Amino acid sequence: xxxxxxxARSLTKIYRNADVxxxxxxxxxxxLYEGEVSVLLGPSGSGKSTLLNILGGLDSATSGxxxxxxxxxxxxxxxxLTRYRxxxxxxxxxxxxxxxxLTAWENVALVTDIAPDPMTPSQALAxxxxxxxxxxxxxxxxxxxxxxxxxxxxIAKRPDVLLCDEPIGAxxxxxxxxxxxxxxxxxxxLGTTTAIITHNAPIRAMAHRVFTFHDxxxxxxxxxxxxxxxxxxxx
Length: 235
What we know:
Helix content: 25-40%
Structural class: alpha/beta
Low-confidence stretches: none
CATH architecture: 3-Layer(aba) Sandwich
Number of strands: 10
CATH topology: Rossmann fold
Mean pLDDT: 94
Largest sheet: 6 strands, mixed
Number of helices: 6
Order of helices and strands: EEEHEEHEHHHEHEEE
């Protein structure tokens, strides 16, 4: 059994707005393991993004415990969470959040300039198959290429974990497959522990481990003994 990277126990998250209370997580237990790709599957509003934000140090649980290796994230201060995000976590979101006035290389360099042990922007872009496009601006790139720049930016600092929230949600199936192949390659070559949020059930085929969410809970979890490469996924 590989080493546990994240261990979450009895996590709850309640959002309050005036007299309205929304329970986003209802006692979630989860363990993510080193070097694995995990897929978090379920409809919108089932708690997937809330959990990912807590694991990534972007949000805090209302109750319960979550640890990243020997780091207790539950009681961490904002300063500690900022350092944790900077040193250990790479994020990829549905929308690319690239700076339009910067080239692909320069967008990635924003991260490498502040990371303690980064790869070069060129190395990161080559990992996602964009070496020939590093001097192009976002407006000169397709949606899939922009998302791969966002992935390169996320992994350029050599994070321990890569957290992807609907990374192909805005892409067609052919382009999405290319993006998944880039994520798969990073996991294989760098050993980066990876979690992918999706509502797209076929993507579970590329995962080592699958968690299915419903109404703020993990309804089921399973190991995938017969993983398929991303290029074979059809949806």
